[in-house]
């Protein structure tokens, strides 16, 4: 194994891509499998511990991990020479591999967009991290929850697409 | 009809449905349109 050669650098970006992706999707699933279903069961006077301390910290790592996953993923696809074929979901080269990785990439891009441009701004309102009318908080929280659920839904086929492109196509 | 994203189970079910459709599309693209 030669270190610092091209193949090793490709591997390094893949490693950081997986590392970032685990943190992103792990925290997404924390929100959806743990925090959202548990919040109604927590006594009201204890909820500020979650909304004021835990959730903002989760959102920090969540959104930056999302960005890191996308950036390292796009660099990885470019280094591997399939960025254009993948973004064209394999319609340019007619390969299942490009179709699988490409659909996974588009799902990932949509999810990252949701994180940065919908979930994060709405959560800032819902959690009181920015100045906003109190009457706007419930609607903002609900929108953030539904888009978080959308991302959880997309994570199921997205991860299949990513792993299948690597292993069965 | 209830929005499937209102529940976690509905969310996962929708994800699995999208997964199945996606696999069909991937196979179709790989075989030049013939599944």
What this model shows, in words?
The complex is a heterodimer of chains A (169) and B (35). Helix content of chain A is 79%, strand content 0%. Chain A is built from five helices and no strands. Chain A starts with 5 loop residues before the first helix and ends with a helix. The mean pLDDT of chain A is 96. Chain B has 35 residues and is mainly alpha-helical. Chain B is 66% helix and 0% strand. Chain B has one helix and no strands. Chain B has one helix at residues 8-30. The mean pLDDT of chain B is 92. Classes of the chains: A mainly alpha (169), B mainly alpha (35). The interface between A and B is medium-sized, with 28 and 19 residues.
Question: Care to give the gist of this entry?
Answer:
The complex is a heterodimer of chains A (169) and B (35). Chain A has five helices and no strands.
How are the elements arranged and paired?
The complex is a heterodimer of chains A (169) and B (35).
Chain A lengths: L5 H33 L8 H33 L3 H5 L8 H31 L10 H31 L2
Helix pairs in contact in A: 1-2, 1-5, 2-4, 4-5
Chain B lengths: L7 H23 L5
* Quaternary structure of the protein: heterodimer
Morphology of chain A: elongated
Give the total of beta strands of chain A: 0
Most extensive chain interface and residues per partner: A-B, 28 and 19 residues
Instruction: State the major sheet of chain A.
Output: none
Primary descriptors:
heterodimer, A: 169 residues, mainly alpha, 5 helices, B: 35 residues, 1 helix
């Amino acid at each position: 194994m030669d270190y610092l050669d091209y193949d090793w650098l490709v591997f390094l970006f893949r490693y950081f891509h997986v590392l970032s992706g685990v943190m992103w999707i792990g925290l997404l699933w924390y929100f959806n499998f743990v925090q959202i279903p548990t919040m109604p069961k927590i006594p009201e006077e204890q909820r500020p511990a979650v909304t004021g301390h835990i959730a903002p910290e989760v959102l920090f790592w969540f959104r930056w991990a999302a960005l890191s996953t996308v950036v390292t993923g796009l660099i990885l696809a470019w280094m591997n020479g399939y960025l254009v074929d993948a973004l064209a979901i394999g319609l340019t080269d007619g390969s299942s591999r490009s179709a699988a990785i490409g659909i996974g990439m588009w799902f990932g891009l949509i999810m990252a967009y949701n994180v940065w441009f919908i979930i994060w701004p709405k959560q800032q309102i819902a959690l009181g991290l920015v100045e906003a009318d109190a009457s706007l908080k419930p609607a903002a929280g609900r929108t953030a929850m539904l888009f978080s659920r959308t991302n959880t839904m997309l994570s199921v086929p997205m991860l299949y697409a990513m792993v299948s492109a690597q292993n069965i196509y | 009809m209830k929005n499937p994203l209102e529940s976690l189970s509905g969310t996962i079910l929708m994800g699995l449905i999208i997964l199945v459709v996606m696999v069909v599309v991937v196979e179709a693209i790989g075989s030049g349109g013939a599944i």
